[in-house]
Amino acid sequence: MHFAYPPRKSSNPPPYLRAAKLPGLRRSRLKIIAAAGFAFLVLIYLLTRPTRHAPYKSYAPTGNPPAVIVSVFDEMKYDKAYLDLIKDNRIQYAAKHGMLCYETFFPKVGDYDIKGAPTSWTNVVAVRHALTKFPDCKFVWFLDQNAFIMNPDLTIEEHVMKPARLEGLMIKDYPVVPPDSIIKTFSHLKGQDVDFVVTQDKDGMSASSYVVRNGDWARFFLETWFDPLYRSYNFQRAETHALEHIVQWHPTVLARLALVPQKTLNTYSRASKGVEYQDGDFVVVFNGCTSTQECDADAHRYVYRWQSAFKST
């Protein structure tokens, strides 16, 4: 019996089936390489082409006015006659420096939406508003409504913010919240680098009289201080304790802060909480008063003094 032989394999077998895909793969790789090269050229173009936008430049205030005095008035809590007396004090002080064109700014509690936070937070947003209202001012001086300017001869520029003056005033390497805070004021800070001047009393930092230098840093600082998160905290002293918090936790704030003696711009009518006012001091704050009757009684102890001082200059 003869068996059929299986068909012999050709000596020229057909090409391997996958070989038919090689040209396609090569074309695909070429496309990928070409696309990558194009993307690279586009990137180089975008990085090297001339920009149509001018680079950011920090705005430099012209210094007109040199200073704006900000006091926030609570017309619901205090009598008009009392508040008018406080306003008159600020206005007369500004007028005494007429050549310098000092300005005053008197917003009211309720002018801003502070989302249910304690009304004292209005003080912070009012200072921020002043920077917008007077974009060319050099300094903003916040002074609590329950206070008088007592010495018209002293100015913010010379008495407080002049770099050489600050060099002699600054309390360096000192706890920002005495006595136990491990965060201390910078020991190497120069007067020319200071953008925020504040004082302490026996309770800690005092926000009843402070000075901010106008500029980008001031806007950053006030936005940070007025952050909704801090307003939502149940701080016992509201914006003052918030200030203590950010000073201790934000080196960018501490690096621009100068702590100066309370006598410089924030003496008190009562010695129980801090340095008591003496004749010749710049400011007296009626600390501890909480009503028109109490504050008015404190104020009238000083009305004749400041009016007499203003008339004699």
Protein architecture, described:
This protein is of the alpha/beta class and 313 residues long. The protein has a single domain, classed as Spore Coat Polysaccharide Biosynthesis Protein SpsA, Chain A. It has eleven helices and nine strands. It has helices spanning 22-48, 80-96, 122-133, 156-161, 163-169, 216-225, 228-232, 239-249, 251-254, 292-300, 303-311; strands at 67-70, 103-105, 139-143, 147-149, 196-201, 204-213, 257-259, 267-268, 283-285. The strands form two sheets. It has a six-stranded mixed sheet, with helices on both faces. The radius of gyration is 34 Å and the shape is elongated. Residues 1-13 and 16-22 have low confidence and may be disordered.
Question: Summarize this, please?
Answer:
One of its GO terms (molecular function) is alpha-1,6-mannosyltransferase activity. This protein is an alpha/beta fold and 313 residues long.
Compile the SSE list and pairings.
Blueprint: H1 22-48, E1 67-70, H2 80-96, E2 103-105, H3 122-133, E3 139-143, E4 147-149, H4 156-161, H5 163-169, E5 196-201, E6 204-213, H6 216-225, H7 228-232, H8 239-249, H9 251-254, E7 257-259, E8 267-268, E9 283-285, H10 292-300, H11 303-311
Parallel strand pairs: 1-2, 1-3, 5-7, 8-9
Antiparallel strand pairs: 3-6, 4-9, 5-6
Helix pairs in contact: 3-6
Number of domains: 1
Supply Rg. Answer: 34 Å
- Order the strands across the largest sheet as they lie in space: 2-1-3-6-5-7
Low-confidence stretches: 1-13, 16-22
CATH topology: Spore Coat Polysaccharide Biosynthesis Protein SpsA, Chain A
CATH architecture: Alpha-Beta Complex
Mean pLDDT: 87
Largest sheet report: 6 strands, mixed
| SSE series | HEHEHEEHHEEHHHHEEEHH
Total strands: the figure is: 9
Query: In terms of structural class, how would the helical and strand content be classed?
Result: alpha/beta
